[in-house]
Amino acid sequence: MTVHRHPGLPRRAVIQGLAAGLTLLVMPRVTAGLDAALQARFGERRPANGGVELEVSSLVENGNSVAVTVRADPSQPAPTALHLFMPRNPEPWGTSFNIQPPALAEFSTRIRLSGTQDLMAVAEWADGRLGATAVSVMVTLGACADEIYGEF
Amino acid sequence: MKSWLPILLLLGCCASAGPPEHRSGYHLLGGELRALQDDDFANPGMLWVDRGERLWNAPGGPREQSCRDCHDEPANLRGLTNRLPRFDAEADRLHNLDTLVRDCRQQRQQAEVLPHESEDLLALTTLIAHQSRGLPLEVTVEGPARAAFEQGRASFERRRGQLDLSCADCHQRLEGARLRGETISAGMVNGFPLYRLTWEGLGSRQRMIRWCNEAVRAEPMDPDSRRALALELYLAWRSRGLPLESPAVRR
Amino acid sequence: MSLSARVRIPTEARAGEVVEIRTLVSHPMETGFRVDSFGRRVPRNILTRFSCRYADREIVSMDLRPGIAANPYLAFRFVADVSGAIELRWEGQDGEVLVERGHLEVSAA
After folding, report:
1. Per the CB 3.0–4.6 Å rule, which of B51, B82, B87, B197 could disulfide with B145?
2. What is the pLDDT at residue C32?
3. Residue A107: closest C-alpha in chain C
4. Which class does domain A24-139 fall in?
5. B178 or B227, higher pLDDT
6. What stretches in chain A show pLDDT beneath 70?
7. How far apart are CA B184 and CA B164, in angstroms?
């Protein structure tokens, strides 16, 4: 049996992260669908890394309802909006949450995920600056999950 | 042998206390979905309980009667759902929660009959089932119910559909095994009516039976038929001892 | 199911205290991307906007898209600073509106 090895993969780091039960933070990766969604929201601006926290299970039992919490980094000035993108959904723009004081820059909701993907949360500050965090979420597929049974 | 005695005694005690034979589907959920079911605010099934409370008080039919006019508080029906289906000797038939509510509405209230799986019927049945939350399932399968019970057991064992599978093939013999990303459940019915993420809505036990039949490519049963109600009685008996969880949350 | 909400709105707080609002709305949030068993596209039917006014200020607004789960859940927090009315408002794509109201009484810290 041949074992293929991928020298580029930071496997040790990935395994250590999973073993520790940590959320798998990933570098925000911009796919074509996501880029179009970012373009529609932000024009030419693109987010830097960080400034926002994204809480979500790394393993999801059913993509129809996934709990997420998006929270601005408390060590930075409060942003005016928090955005959530699901790059592999038919519509990658998930939601935008606009904040005015005395509201805190955080919200919790439940979203749909059409499959395993890297969720991206973006904080937007009044000066136009953007910061992003991405989290890898694996969506498992149950038995008999075929669409045709969705009706009844 | 001596060292085994306390364990045997312990097992004996448990057996006489009638512990549930199977585990609720709740234990097959991950932490996030258990938390959703346990959160009486965020559990989406509670939207139907709320709607049921509004309907409970709404007058209907030619005499403008509401459920409350006869039954007073919904809490008076605590202890009903966990004993269903039950055999009505006079009518020589089984009743489940749906047939009781539909018949009451049609015959006593003389209002428009509520279609199966309609939002209004589910709202009322979920409100009523919710009153019995925590009570153990205990259906009567002796006496006049015996024939229906045996019919239900035979139905549970009978292979069906293009996949040629019986209920027992999966939910008894393969219980706990993996099927793609899913763990095969024991087929317990103590959570119904429940909120299923696959449906993004509520469903009754009969909706789940229908869904299962379609999944093995078998002809779905009429939810009012004798064989559908007999199967539900057998499923409720298999779930005996488990606490009622409605509105449960399932995948 | 007809549009209705479960809401948890705080009624009392000390000035400076952080309080939470939780909401759950009955709505299918039909994406418009699904087809039924006859291959027909199920038309989109979603709520598009949520907003919260507190003491005559809009403190939160949210754009809802098809990626928000059916029966939308939302929780958020704010600092109680003055006594005032709280108004939660949902708007649907076809102009339907649902409003829930409360009142927060704020006492000196």
Report:
1. B87
2. 93
3. C76
4. mainly beta
5. B227
6. 1-24, 27-29, 142-152
7. 17
Compare CB distances from C6 to B46, B123, B200 and report the shortest one's residue.
B46
User: Cβ contact (<8 Å) for B33 and A57?
Assistant: no
Binning pLDDT at 50, 70 and 90, where does residue C109 land? confident
Residues in chain A closer than 8 A to B36 (CB atoms): 65, 67
Do the chains contact at A64 and C66, CB–CB below 8 Å? no
- Taking an 8 Å cut-off on Cβ atoms, the answer to whether C72 and A110 are in contact is yes
Instruction: Convert the pLDDT of each residue in B104-114 to its tens digit.
Output: 999 999 999 99
CA distance A66 to A116: 12
Distance from C-alpha of A97 to C-alpha of A52, rounded to nearest angstrom: 13
Report the gap between the CA of B117 and the closest CA in chain A (Å). Answer: 10
Domain B23-42+140-250, architecture per CATH: Orthogonal Bundle (1.10)
| Catalytic site includes residue B212 | yes
- Domains of chain C: residue spans and CATH: 5-34+41-107 (2.60.40.10)
Task: Convert the pLDDT of each residue in A78-107 to its tens digit.
Answer: 999 999 999 999 999 999 999 999 999 999
End-to-end CA distance of chain C: 43
Asked if C24 lies within 8 A of B44 by C-beta distance, the reply is yes
Measured in angstroms, the CA of C72 and the nearest CA of chain B are apart by 9
| C97 touches B: beta carbon within 8 Å | no
Secondary structure of chain C in HEC code, one letter for each residue: CCCCEEEECCCEEECCCEEEEEEEECCCCECCCCECCCCCECCCECEEEEEEEECCEEEEEEEECCCECCCCEEEEEEECCCCEEEEEEEEECCCCEEEEEEEEEEECC
Where do the structural domains in chain A lie, given as residue ranges? 24-139
The distance of B202 to chain C (nearest Cα, Å) reads 11
> Chains touching chain B at 3 or more Cβ pairs under 8 angstroms?
A, C
Name the nearest CA neighbour of B182 among C84, A146, C70, C89: A146
Q: Which fold has domain B46-131?
A: Cytochrome Bc1 Complex; Chain D, domain 2 (1.10.760)
Q: For residue B46, give the chain C residue with the closest CA.
A: C6
Amino acid at site C85: A
Position B195 pLDDT exceeds 80: yes
**Structure ipTM:** 0.94
Predicted pLDDT at A37: 95
pLDDT tens track for B100-149: 999 999 999 999 999 999 999 999 999 999 999 999 999 999 999 999 99
Name the closest residue on chain C to residue B202, using Cα atoms. Answer: C1
Q: What is the mean pLDDT of residues C86-101?
A: 97
A93 has a chain C CB within 8 A of its CB: yes
Domain boundaries, chain B: 23-42+140-250, 46-131
